[in-house]
Amino acid sequence: HDRRVLQLAYQLLNDHGDAEDVYQDVFINVYRKLPSFRFESEFATWLHRIVVNHCINFRKRRTRRDTHEQHVLETEDEAFAPFPTESLDPERELINQELGAQISAGIAALSDKQRAVFVLRHFHGHKLQDIAKILNTAEGTVKNYLFRATQHLQKKLRAYQEEGLC
Length: 166
What we know:
By secondary structure, this protein is mainly alpha-helical.
């Protein structure tokens, strides 16, 4: 579970250092609270709920805004990777990089709950019912968060779509 926890933390925080801090806190917390796990849900659901809550609390506590929110990571385990660019021409590669940066910026601009729902649904493949359990909220609320997040990203990427670039 460790790689998925780190990836989820990064996708919610958009900063490697912050994600690693949350990652460590999550596993310390999980270790301490493991005896209280009641097997009423899957372990992964319980774990993702802890990660999401830690990330939301971390963002609330953090007072400084870093400049890394506008950048896409260039490492192989990049969270919001642009489309593959192996055989693309330089112009298309640049467009894909810009699109990837816009997607990252759009996701970073979402509210904590919207970002959590969007990432859990589209990057981790969770069903809406599972996301509702992770966030301890109603499924209708999850649908609302997902709808709003999708609307926001569509507006952010409309120019690319109108130009036929995506």
